[in-house]
UniProtKB/TrEMBL annotation:
Protein name, entry field: ABC-2 type transport system ATP-binding protein
Pfam families on file: ABC_tran
Domain ABC transporter residues, every copy: 2-233
Keywords, sorted A to Z: ATP-binding, Nucleotide-binding, Transport
Organism for this UniProt entry: Paenibacillus silagei
GO molecular function, one term: ATP binding
Cited PROSITE patterns: ABC_TRANSPORTER_1 (PS00211), ABC_TRANSPORTER_2 (PS50893)
Gene3D superfamilies xref list: P-loop containing nucleotide triphosphate hydrolases
PANTHER family per UniProt: ABC TRANSPORTER ATP-BINDING PROTEIN ALBC-RELATED
InterPro entries, sorted: AAA+_ATPase, ABC_transporter-like_ATP-bd, ABC_transporter-like_CS, ABC_Transporter_VariousFunc, P-loop_NTPase
Domain of life: Bacteria
CDD domains, per the entry: ABC_DR_subfamily_A
């Protein structure tokens, strides 16, 4: 579903933010991407979703190159940045309909999915209100619902749990497991190691722009907790 080969990115005048990163996310994977602040997670994610150009390597979504055919790739994926920038002058439901139109979601599917996810995140009653009146967590929930209503094959999330209350975080974890059990794939960054360990079937750890461990969660973690492995690798590798 997502193949990254030898991805390398430098910003102007800087050293390599990500250096020769390769990994594969398959159908049904919940793939956690962890690393210290400044490790290169957002850089990788932004390149994967086609909003950041890069000089070396190849990224494919469902076999299609993000460089050669970004529009075809974007039709297959949904991306929620760490700080989603929504249209404040729209109401929640107007925004969801705007996204629904963009991705040609049928009326019946739109109604069903907005109802299902709106209720799950307890946002239904606020969908008629202006986004400018939403709290940070409500905006985050709306962004998540907007990503889910077009049933993407690949969901890419940058720090999705930040700003969510415990109930909403639990709802999101349940939904992530559910969409992957139905054949989609999720690639997401997080600093919440406990959640990553419980939720993800695969984990990648990035340090200073280089991938230092990746694979099945139980293999990356071995006999230890993910937190122990992470600390060990970050401190000594
Ligand atoms: N627009 C930019 N211009 C120059 N350097 C940048 C830019 N964006 C990121 N960097 C640098 O690239 C490196 C990787 O940053 P990135 O945002 O990908 O890290 P991250 O793993 O997402 O960090 P965090 O956990 O803090 O969000 C850092 O050294 C950062 O300073």
């Amino acid at each position: 579903m997502l193949t990254i080969r030898h991805f390398t990115k430098s910003y102007k005048g800087g050293k390599k933010a990500v250096d020769d990163l390769s990994l594969v996310v398959e159908r049904g994977d919940i793939y956690g991407f962890i690393g210290h602040n400044g490790a290169g997670k957002t850089t990788t994610i932004r390149a994967v979703v086609g909003v950041l150009d890069f000089e070396q390597g190849e990224i494919e979504i469902d076999g299609i190159s993000i460089k050669k055919d970004p529009l075809a790739c974007k039709a297959k994926l949904a991306y929620i940045p760490d700080n989603p920038d929504l249209y404040d002058h729209l109401t929640g439901i107007q925004y969801l309909n705007f996204i629904g139109d963009l991705f040609s979601v049928s009326g019946a599917n739109r109604e069903r999915l907005i109802g299902q996810y709106g209720d799950a995140f307890q946002l239904t009653a606020s969908l008629g209100d202006l986004i400018s009146s939403y709290s940070h967590g409500m905006k985050q929930k709306l962004a998540i619902i907007s990503a889910l209503i077009h049933e993407p094959k690949l969901l890419v999330l940058d720090e999705p749990f930040v700003g969510l209350d415990p109930k909403a975080a639990h709802t999101l974890k349940t939904i992530m497991a559910d969409v992957c059990s139905r054949g989609s794939a999720i690639f997401f960054s997080t600093h919440v190691l406990d959640t990553a360990e419980k939720l993800c079937n695969k984990i990648a750890i990035i340090k200073g722009g280089r991938l230092i461990a990746h694979g099945k969660t139980e293999e990356v973690r071995g006999e230890n907790s993910l937190e122990d492995v992470f600390m060990e690798l970050i401190d000594h590798d």
